[in-house]
Amino acid sequence: MKNKPWTPADIVVLNTDASNAVLAAILKRTPQAVASKRSKIGLRRTKKWTNKDDDALVKNAHKSARKLADELGFSVKTVKRKARALGIKLASPRWTGEELAYLETNYLTMTDRQIGAELGRTPGAVRAQRQRWGWMKAPGNF
Fold it and tell me: I need a labelling partner for 71 at 20 to 30 A (CA). Which of 10, 55, 108, 140 fits?
């Protein structure tokens, strides 16, 4: 399957300080595709982590890394790394009723990775919820 070509308008959008995840949502591409294209054409984010960002992270540690990443304009990975360096434990996003219903409906026919991709969760988080609710898979179907 050939990738969708990048338009000049897409390139303009790439040349901002927004995170790869935010741009991926705007451009309807994966964060990896955005990062790869930025790298290939020599675009680098100019936003650097500041003391103000540290303060916001400490003040909002009750929020999830995903929420903080959106608010601060950094990737989830960067926020988690910085929180760990500062000794801060961030809140884990709670599972919604819709997410649990989706998991219960699909856990037998989809892998944890597929469900996680659909819900924006890691395969480990999906597995943990399945096990918590007693929804077990047949061996080899993870």
Answer: 10
Residue 70 in any domain: the answer is: yes
Residue 84 pLDDT: 93
Query: Stretch 58-72: mean pLDDT, rounded?
Result: 86
Q: How many residues does the chain have?
A: 142
> Is residue 2 in a domain?
no
Contact (CB, 8 A) for 104 and 73: no
CB 84 within 8 A of CB 78: no
State the residue range of the domain holding 17: 8-40
Tally of CB atoms within 10 A around 15: 13
Those residues with Cβ within 8 angstroms of residue 50's Cβ, 6 or more apart along the chain or in another chain: none
Tell me the pLDDT of the chain averaged across its residues. Answer: 87
Predicted confidence (pLDDT) per residue in 1-53, tens digit: 467 899 999 999 988 878 777 888 899 998 778 888 988 898 876 678 899 99
